[in-house]
């Protein structure tokens, strides 16, 4: 089977993002990412989805994290759409229930061509604070979580539901949802041998 690989570069007045995605990878992640927790989330996404992702992320962090995080979702979604092409032969939909300590998370996805996000992450919207390698304080704006996934679904042209069923820690909720989404997408984009390369829609086309 030919590997499904896509490269996208997107440059705006706020961000410069370049990503290469291999849907049929082994979970390798090599992206220059200035936001520590966001890197942790993308690494987890790749590891559990078996996606390979390389590239770099730059943005106006002096303004806010919102632009860079949302635009990364946009570019990653564009990579998914380009790599999937007409979606011929894939299962198309998938779901996964992911337990992470006290938290239980659920993701369900359909690469059916109609973008829609339902995100019930139940986050506190209080930034996570850590100390970076340079000894300085760093943070992750948890209110950008929805922004990332909204950018993703609009450009991957998928329907995605993310739900926190229970949980206490924002860290566990977000990480578990990234992992659940990865496993759901991994199932959805796998090739169904019984489909024999046909489009997974009664319309005969994914729109």
Count all strands and give the number: 10
Which of globular, elongated, flat, extended, rod-shaped describes the shape?
Answer: globular
Strand content bin? 25-35%
Please give the share of residues in helix.
25-40%
Number of helices: 4
Low-confidence spans = none
Structural class comes to: alpha+beta
Strands of the biggest beta sheet: in what spatial order? 1-2-4-3
Q: Work out the radius of gyration.
A: 17 Å
Distance separating the two termini: 24 Å
What is the helix/strand order?
EEEHEHEEEEEHEH
- Main sheet? 4 strands, mixed
Mean pLDDT: 95
Describe the structure.
The protein has helices at 36-49, 66-84, 145-156, 170-189; strands at residues 5-11, 15-22, 29-32, 52-59, 93-100, 103-110, 116-120, 128-131, 137-140, 159-166. The chain is α+β, with helices and mostly antiparallel strands and 207 residues long. It has a 4-stranded mixed β-sheet with strand order 1-2-4-3, with helices on one face. The longest helix has 20 residues, at 170-189. It is globular.
């Amino acid at each position: 089977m030919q590997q499904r690989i896509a490269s996208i570069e997107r440059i705006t007045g706020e961000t410069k993002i370049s990503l290469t995605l291999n849907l049929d990878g082994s979970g390798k992640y090599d992206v220059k990412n200035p936001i520590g927790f966001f890197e942790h989330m993308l690494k987890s996404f790749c590891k559990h989805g078996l996606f390979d992702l390389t590239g770099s992320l730059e943005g106006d962090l002096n303004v806010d994290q919102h632009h860079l995080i949302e635009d990364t979702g946009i570019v990653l979604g564009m990579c998914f759409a380009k790599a999937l092409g007409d979606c011929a032969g894939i299962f198309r939909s998938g779901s996964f229930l992911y337990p992470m300590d006290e938290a239980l998370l659920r993701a369900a996805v359909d690469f059916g061509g109609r973008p829609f996000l339902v995100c019930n992450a139940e986050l506190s919207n209080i930034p996570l604070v850590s100390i970076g390698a340079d000894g300085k304080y760093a943070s992750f704006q948890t209110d950008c979580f929805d922004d990332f996934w909204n950018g993703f679904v609009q450009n991957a042209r998928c329907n995605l539901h993310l739900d926190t069923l229970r949980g206490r820690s924002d860290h566990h909720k977000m990480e578990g949802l990234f992992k659940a989404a990865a496993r759901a997408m991994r199932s959805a984009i796998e090739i169904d041998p019984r489909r024999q390369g046909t489009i997974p829609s009664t319309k005969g086309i994914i729109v």
